[in-house]
Amino acid sequence: MRKNTSKPLRILVTGASSGIGYDAAAELARMGHTVFAAARRVALMEPLKEFGVTPVALDVTSEDSLKACLEVVGDLDVLVNNAGYGYFGPIETVPMEDARRQVEVNLFGLARLCQMVLPGMRAKGSGRIVNIGSVAGKAAMHFGGWYNVSKFAVEAFSDALRMEMKPFGVKVVLIEPGPIKTSWGDIAADHLAACTAGTAYEAAGAREAATMHKAYSLRVLSAPSVVTRCIVKAAVARRPRTRYRPGIGASHIVFWHALLPDRWWDAMNRQLASPGVAKFAQKL
Fold first, then answer.
1. The pLDDT value given to residue 281
2. Residue 251 in 3-state DSSP?
3. 106, 155, 158, 131 alpha-carbon torsion, rounded to 10°
4. Which residues of the chain have pLDDT under 70?
5. Are the CB atoms for 284 and 214 separated by under 8 Å?
6. Residue 267 phi/psi, 5° resolution?
7. Strand partners, 172
8. For 225-255, how does the pLDDT look when each residue is reduced to its tens digit (9 = 90+)?
9. Strand order in the sheet with 170-175
């Protein structure tokens, strides 16, 4: 991407220790912006320093950590809420502690950070909140229950916040990626396999976990850079869209979910855990 020629912005990107967040922090810094990359694993962000990025420790579930992070970054022009993860497993067997943590990280951590930066943005009459959602916030996935809950909530949160911030000049943008080639799929698959072991869902869980591992290794998947391009547009465009859907199949997933009868969609999702699909995936 070409170097930015407009006024440099002060930007915080959360969840920047790998994947989309890491790529976005590097690109925004290359464009000449002042970028802070935040995550729990600070050591993984050290290479970002060569782009001029400042790594900052952040646990979005800790009030003290949020305050300490914002003391370092100061007044912000753009907040990119990218921190999050996927915990897959049957609703029956996922421990409630893990379910609560999924929503705590993916929704409440994001929401609290917004609450903390919005007063400064309102005061100056400008700013951007860029929330990284997912097509999983539009279409439920087999064994993705609690992850879907968290991402559906981010959809509603972003819509509500966009309306509330309109009078104050603060823009809210939601990015809904489809499957992206990062470690996310492997982490979610490992959670699924562990959560179904020794339960009535073990066979189906193991098959779908294997399919997910294989799917997220395919070269056809979109690279994190496709999401980065949308983050850049959301951060610097004079009139950004309210939503972006980057990644292979993102728009198609939303389209077919809206078009197909519920039972058809359910059946199509369950097929991912069928022996035939699992065997086919292993041959790819």
1. 41
2. helix
3. 50
4. 1-5, 272-284
5. yes
6. -65, -40
7. 129
8. 999 999 999 999 999 999 999 988 888 888 8
9. 54-57, 34-39, 10-14, 78-81, 127-132, 170-175, 243-244
What is residue 272's predicted lDDT score, i.e. its pLDDT? 59
Which residue do the tokens 């497993």 mark?
89
DSSP string, 196-237: HTTSTTHHHHHHHHHHHHHHTT-TTSBPHHHHHHHHHHHHH-
Length of the chain in residues, anyone? 284
Report the distance separating Cα 266 and Cα 258, nearest Å: 13
Burial of 125 (0-12, 13-18, 19+ CB in 10 A): exposed
DSSP H stretches of helix in 104-223: 110-124, 145-165, 184-196, 202-215
Lookup result for tokens 């967040």: 21
Give the integer Cα–Cα distance in Å for 180 and 135. Answer: 11
pLDDT value, residue 265: 85
Q: Which residue has the tokens 């782009």?
A: 51
The 10 Å Cβ neighbour count of residue 120 is 14
Contact 24, 16 (CB under 8 A): yes
CB 144 within 8 A of CB 271: no
For residues 190 and 148, the answer to whether their CB atoms sit within 8 Å is no
Q: Is 146 left (phi over 0), alpha (psi -120 to 50) or beta?
A: alpha
Catalytic residues: 147
Q: Cα–Cα distance between 13 and 146 in angstroms, integer?
A: 24
For residue 238, count other CB atoms closer than 10 A to its CB.
6
111 and 60 Cβ atoms separated by less than 8 Å: no
Residue whose tokens read 């294989």: 214
Q: DSSP assignment, residue 175?
A: E
